[in-house]
Design brief:
By secondary structure, this protein is an alpha+beta fold. It has a single domain (8-303), classed as DD-peptidase/beta-lactamase superfamily (Beta-lactamase), CATH 3.40.710. The protein is built from twelve helices and seven strands. It has a five-stranded antiparallel β-sheet, with helices on both faces. A two-stranded antiparallel ribbon has the order 3-4. Strand 6 (266-271) and strand 7 (275-280) form a beta hairpin. The protein is globular, with a radius of gyration of 18 Å. Bound molecules: glutamine. Glutamine is lined by residues 67-68, 99-100, 118, 162, 169, 197, 262-263, 288.
C-alpha cells in the first residue's frame, strides 16, 4: 500500500498551541511525595512514524517518571517468559474502577482483572521474580534495548518514596497472597513493583521504546522480534480496554488509539503500523490520567484524521 507521508511536525505544533489556556486544569500526583516535586507546567510531545521519522515539540527531551506506563513493559517481559499460562494468574477484562482499587479482588478470588491495574502489575512482578534471578537488571536490559539508550534507569528516590507510602499496594499484595496468587515474598515483590514504576524516560525515549507495538512486535532499531505479532495485537488490545482504568472508555471515545497512562503525567499511544506517540504533562484529572495529555492526543487524532477506527 502507498501510505501518504504525513508531516506530523506541523500537526504537533498546532496541537501544542491549542493547549494554551489549559495550564491550570488538573493536579500533580502527591500521594508519592517525590512526584510532587515535579515542575507542573511541563509539556512535551514526541511522535515516531513507521519510517522512523521523529517529530517533537516542547519538553520532549526531559526525563520524567513513567510510573504505570512501565506495566506494559513488565507484561511484555512476563509474556515472553510464560506465554499463555500467564493468563491463569491475571485476566484481560477492563476493571471500570480506580488503578489501586481493592474491591474486585475479593470477589474474583485474588485474580486481578488485568495486568495494568496495580494488583495485576504486582502479580506480573511476582512472575518476573520467579522467572529471573535478577529481575531488575533483566528489566533494564530489556527496556534499554527497546529505547536505544543504554543508560536508561530507575529513579531510586521515586522508588523509595513510593515504598515508604505503599499502604494500598501492600494491602493488594497481602490479599492476593492469601488467595495464593503471589508466590514470592511480599516485600521483594513490592520492591520490584516500585522500581518498575520509577523508570525515567523522555518523551522521545518513550515513543521509541514502544515502537514494537506499532511494528507487529518487532524492535525497529534492531529488527529483533520482541514478541510475536499475535502478542503485539493482544498487548495493544489490553491497552485499548484497560490502559486508563475507569477512563478507558473515554480515552477510546475521544482519542481512538490503544494507550497507557501513568501518574507521572505521561501517556503513550500507539497507532499500529503508523506511529507511536508519547506525551508528558504532569497535572492529572480526577481519574489519575494527564489532563492535557488526553487533550493533546485527542487533538492529534482529530487533526490528522487518523485513529484505529
Ligand atoms: N506507582 C504508582 C502506584 O502504584 C503507579 C500508579 C499509576 O501510574 N497509575 O500507585
Amino acid at each position: 500500500t502507498n501510505k501518504a507521508h504525513i508531516n506530523y511536525q506541523l500537526i504537533l505544533e498546532q496541537v501544542f498551541d491549542k493547549m494554551t489556556g489549559l495550564e491550570n486544569s488538573g493536579q500533580v500526583a502527591t500521594y508519592i511525595p517525590q512526584l510532587a516535586k515535579v515542575d507542573a507546567n511541563k509539556l512535551g510531545i514526541h511522535l515516531i512514524d513507521s519510517e522512523q521519522s521523529h517529530y517533537s515539540v516542547g519538553d520532549a527531551c526531559e526525563k520524567f517518571s513513567i510510573q504505570s506506563i512501565a506495566k506494559v513493559l513488565s507484561l511484555t517481559l512476563a509474556l515472553k517468559a510464560r506465554g499463555d499460562s500467564l493468563w491463569q494468574r491475571v485476566g484481560v477484562e477492563p476493571s471500570g474502577s480506580a488503578f489501586n482499587s481493592l474491591v474486585q479482588l475479593e470477589y474474583e478470588k485474588g485474580r486481578p482483572r488485568n495486568p495494568f491495574i496495580n494488583a495485576g502489575a504486582i502479580v506480573v512482578c511476582d512472575v518476573l521474580i520467579s522467572e529471573y534471578r535478577q529481575p531488575k537488571s533483566e528489566l533494564l536490559k530489556f527496556i534499554r534495548a527497546l529505547s536505544g539508550n543504554a543508560k536508561l534507569s530507575f529513579d531510586p528516590a521515586v522508588a523509595e518514596s513510593e515504598k515508604r507510602t505503599s499502604y494500598r499496594n501492600n494491602a493488594l499484595a497481602h490479599l492476593m497472597k492469601d488467595f495464593g496468587n503471589i508466590d514470592n515474598d511480599i516485600e521483594t515483590v513490592l520492591d520490584l513493583y516500585c522500581y518498575l514504576c520509577s523508570i525515567e524516560m523522555t518523551c522521545q525515549e518513550m515513543a521509541q521504546t514502544f515502537m514494537y507495538l506499532a511494528d507487529n512486535g518487532v524492535n525497529p532499531l534492531t529488527g529483533e522480534v520482541v514478541v510475536s505479532s499475535i502478542e503485539a495485537k493482544r498487548i495493544n488490545a489490553i491497552m485499548q480496554l484497560c490502559g486508563f482504568y475507569d477512563e478507558a472508555g473515554e480515552f477510546s471515545f475521544t482519542v481512538g488509539l490503544p494507550g497507557k497512562s501513568g501518574v507521572g503525567g505521561g501517556i503513550i499511544a500507539i497507532h499500529p503500523k503508523h506511529y507511536s506517540v508519547a506525551v508528558w504533562s504532569p497535572k492529572l484529572n480526577s481519574k489519575g490520567n494527564s489532563f492535557i495529555g488526553m487533550k493533546v492526543l485527542e487533538a492529534i487524532t482529530t487533526i490528522s484524521q487518523s485513529s484505529i477506527f
